[in-house]
Structure formats: structure tokens, C-alpha cells
Predict the structure of C-type lectin domain-containing protein.
Amino acid sequence: MKSISYILIFFSLELKKVFCLLNKAEYFSIRTEIINEMGLIEINNFISPNRVLCIVKCLDRKECNQLYFNRETQKCILFSGFSTKNNLVTKQSALLAKVFTQNSSSECIKETEYWSIKMNSCLPCPVTFKRYSLNSFSCYHMSQNDMKFFEAKSYCEEKSAFLPRPKTSNERELIRYLSNNTKTWVDSFIDSLGEVYKWGDGTNVTGFKNGQPGNEGDNSSRLNQNVLIISDLCFFDIEYWKTFKTICQIF
Ligand SMILES: *[C@@H]1O[C@H](CO)[C@@H](O)[C@H](O)[C@H]1NC(C)=O
Ligand SMILES: *[C@@H]1O[C@H](CO)[C@@H](O)[C@H](O)[C@H]1NC(C)=O
Ligand SMILES: *[C@@H]1O[C@H](CO)[C@@H](O)[C@H](O)[C@H]1NC(C)=O
Ligand SMILES: *[C@@H]1O[C@H](CO)[C@@H](O)[C@H](O)[C@H]1NC(C)=O
């Protein structure tokens, strides 16, 4: 099995065509990266002669975040919430996500401003934070020194920020760029063996490197590795007392 991040990138390449097809949508575009795993809540379900109509219906409904279309059965399902239900995606069917895009008039010009989805406007980044073109919806800050996990977490929290939650491939690319492809803390830890890694916002972490989290260490019946880093676009569990680069994020 290929690693998840590879699959995500593959999907986004494969479905780029759809993006072009739909550019006419004024305020939205369909992004095919799988965003997170809040779970899908079905809001409508009907037979659509083609995928475009299915997408248009989703664009029409504010609460629609994701859609599923199957060419064979012509089934169109609209969902709120996001999911990484890869099992829904086959040759005949696709799961697409709707995300806000900036329109030209609302684009933040300064690198010290970001597009707040919540406020629907450009907001200033905090001092020492910067916005990067790979993710217009956040600002990032980099520490001078390497830190242990919980130091890094507090460091960001003191800045009213948090450790990165790079759910999309663009955000992972950005972290790779910012960290110069070195290991970097991300916003997830567990307290007990076998617990599921979740982001600080409560959603499941997906995109682990194959075989991870592995809890490597001298004693597999003890929690040896309880925090996550990102390295080369994939997540790993690791010991909290190691020291790495710290990046903080706000949105
Ligand atoms: C796009 O720009 C217009 C004009 O400034 C604004 O009214 C509208 O809210 C913007 N839409 C989005 C999604 O930012
Ligand atoms: C999160 O992961 C757990 C364990 O794998 C799973 O039971 C749960 O359904 C997942 N949550 C969502 C929203 O997918
Ligand atoms: C980034 O990493 C490369 C390869 O390890 C290294 O040669 C380069 O100096 C690093 N750049 C910075 C700004 O740290
Ligand atoms: C492994 O860890 C468990 C739980 O902490 C402990 O009970 C056990 O004695 C340890 N085994 C070894 C070989 O250290």
C-alpha cells in the first residue's frame, strides 16, 4: 500500500481537470484534496445525469462541503463536513470537497495579512508571523531554536497560536519549505498506548508514513512515542523529549 500523502497528491492531480471545468463558479472552487476527517453528514441524495450538475447543486447550497458522484449509478450525494473516506473513491466515483477561494477583490496583498475564512476578510498576521502563498488562510511563525514537544506547544500557545495542523498537501508542502525539509512538530499527541492521534481541533490525523504510528522503543507495551512530527510530507510518532524546529500557525 502506498502512503496516504501519495494517494492524496495523486487524487489532486487526477481531479485537477474538474477544477478547470468549474472555474466559472464565482466564489467557490472545487478542491480535491481531502481536507480532514470530521465525518460526512448527508444533506441530499439524488440521481444526476452528470457530475457537473451534481457539483452545481453543491455550489448552490452553503452547507454542502463535499460531494460524491458515481458515473455508473449517476448517484449524487451532497455532504456537509469533510472526510477522507478513500473507499468511496473508485474509477467510477469521486468524492470532491468545496473550499473557499479568494476572489481578486478580496485577495490579501501584503504578506503580513491572511484571508480569514471565519471573518471573510483579510486580517493582519500577528507580529513575527507571515503568510505564504501555499496557504493564504494562515500565518506562520518560526522559532529560532529547536525545542522539545511540550515546550514547542507552549511556545506557540503563548503567541495565541498552535503547532501546525497540515491537513492538506499544500500545507504540508509549505511546512516542508519552511522547515527546509527537516523534522517539525505538529499539533498532536496522545496520553495512552493505542489512543488515536487527533489534531488540536479534535479531528483524526491522517497521512501517516507507512507503518506509523509505530511506538518504536525498547518496550512495546509501554508508550514510548507519544507525539507527532512531520517529515517529508508524512507524519511519524516520536519521543516528546527530542528537540526539533518549531513552527507556529494561526488562522
Ligand atoms: C468577493 O468580492 C466581493 C467584492 O469585494 C465581495 O463582496 C465578496 O464577499 C467576495 N467574496 C468572497 C467569497 O470573498
Ligand atoms: C477516527 O478514528 C477512529 C479510530 O480509527 C475511528 O473509530 C473514528 O471513526 C474516526 N473518526 C472519524 C470522524 O472518522
Ligand atoms: C537547507 O538544507 C540544505 C540541505 O540539507 C542545506 O544545504 C541548506 O543550507 C539548508 N538551508 C537553510 C536555509 O538552512
Ligand atoms: C514494559 O512496560 C510495562 C508497562 O510500563 C511494564 O509493566 C513491563 O515491566 C515493561 N517490561 C520490560 C521488559 O521492561
Q: What stands out?
A: Residues 1-38, 101-106 have pLDDT under 50 and may be disordered. Residues 108-250 form a domain with the Mannose-Binding Protein A; Chain A fold (CATH 3.10.100.10). The two ends are 34 Å apart (CA to CA).
